Amino acid sequence: MSVISKSPEETASIHGIGADVLRQEEARHPREGMPKWQWQIIILGNGIMSLVNGYDVSNVANVQILIYKAFGHIELLPWISLAYSVVNMATIPLARKLTGICELRTLCLVSCLLVMAGSALSGAAPNVQAVIVGRALLALGGAPMYQIALTYNVVFAYPHELGLAQAVLGAFFAVGLITGPIIGGAFADNEHTTWRWAFYIVLPLTALVSLCIFFYPSYRVPSRKSALTNLKEFDWIGCVLHIGTFILLGLSCIFSGPTWAWNSGSTIAVWVLLGVVFAAYVAQQTLCLFTTPERRIFPVSILRKSRVVVLTFVCSTCNAVCYGVNLYYTPIYFAFTRGYGPLAAAVRLLPFVCVFIVMTFFSGGLLPAVKYYMPFYVVGGILILVGAGVEQTITAHSSEAKVLGLEALIGAGVGLLWQLAAPVSTMVLEPHERLDAMALVNMAALGGTAIALSIAGTIYQNVGYILVESALDGFGYSSHDVRELLAGADSPILRGGHPEVLVLVVDAITKTILRCFYITLAASAICFIAACCMKFEALPFKKPEAPKGSESAEKTPSV
């Protein structure tokens, strides 16, 4: 068990903030003496934070077409869904630093206010630009909120509990993701509500989080420096370069092709600028320009220190890529090939999500007993790789049972690995490095999803346009009609109802979705290779030995 030492000579850099932080040593665990009900409220509050985070990723999937019909601007349509994921990933390192500087309960309440403001703005938006800005505000609040949940888990959970505590976050996140399209579509289809309630529903959930926060223990990462001093020493250059990299990545992927021609000056300029900013970011973090190794915005030091952390980060990122691509593009497959509406298509994700949740708890509970982490990663990588490989044999006429079975197989592999990086990393790193490891876990999960959706969106819009336009050559449809079709709008191509046209369109869309699934195949292969490079070693999971007379002496608090 660990507690903060009182010796100022033993300093550490938690989160790389450049502060002299008192190291933890084997002594009194922060959870010791905490009532069981308080720990359970922490688990509940963290779960709701994760639920809101997952819901905000996907809640526009079934309402963005209605937003387009209300406000127009089809060129901005992809930003409605991607704004949250891209801005969230862009601000995760900033959130990581703030959790190392601020008192966590106060920071969480501020994050809740940002989420509520973003929800209200998106729901009451007078135009599509306001919806996008509201989604960005949601991400600004969601990034630190999720990071705070991870921090409370790693600080207050006992080592043998951390896997299950992380499984709770993963399960709530998955529930939020799957219910996002369903709830959004239900509001949109109800004559007494509109798509705006898909955003308003976040308000009471966030209010519930705020209520739970008042029962959280107050916690601030120990530092000998004031919060103001830590802010002055902040790696602001690295922060700006990180944010710039991901915002430019989103701009490049979304606007290249649908809005700007690939050979246009705008497209060339934005891709060149992305390359320059990314190169500057890598150089600045590697060479510690205008900062120090301890203050860098990205936790490079723990990646250099441990091969295990690097490999689990790679596996987690690839895992999130597979998760994002299948979650977004499987419903599109069912919508075009079976003619399902938004709700019916979203329900077809249940095999994927249900198996994902079960496997998340299975791995989180079994790892402390088995202790060997490599077999989990190898088996998970194999499940995803096999599922992604067979997925390439899908056609427009494949049976629904086959597609759902492949979903379940991929969901099993993704769920098996989803939260393993947290307990594995905390076991191989020093106590003062574990919060940085949680930031990597967060970046892998949300960053992998954001990258996957950006790249898959580029493939879907550009390759899909080429295939559909080629298939419909000679039928007299405009490029705008094709763009509306790909966006899921009520395109003249579908309204015409010509059987030959529909067959050609479905075949072209199916081929496009399979190209998107190439991303899953590549990511699963990388994940499997990284898993094979791990050591076959056991981790020292131990249950706490509580002092006599305390609550934990009678029974170890559980998740």
UniProtKB/TrEMBL annotation:
Keyword annotations: Membrane, Transmembrane, Transmembrane helix, Transport
Principal cellular location given in the protein's record: membrane
Superkingdom field: Eukaryota
Record-level GO cellular component terms: plasma membrane
Compartment(s) where it occurs, according to its Swiss-Prot or TrEMBL record: Membrane
Transmembrane segments: 76-95, 107-126, 132-155, 167-188, 194-216, 236-262, 268-287, 308-329, 349-369, 376-396, 408-428, 440-460, 512-533
SUPFAM superfamilies per the UniProt record, alphabetical: MFS general substrate transporter
GO molecular function: transmembrane transporter activity
Membrane topology designation: Multi-pass membrane protein
Pfam families referenced in this protein's UniProt entry, alphabetically: MFS_1 (PF07690)
Residues annotated as domain Major facilitator superfamily (MFS) profile: 42-523
Family indicated by similarity: Belongs to the major facilitator superfamily. TCR/Tet family.
PANTHER family: MAJOR FACILITATOR SUPERFAMILY (PTHR23501), MAJOR FACILITATOR SUPERFAMILY (MFS) PROFILE DOMAIN-CONTAINING PROTEIN-RELATED (PTHR23501:SF12)
Name of this chain's protein: Major facilitator superfamily transporter
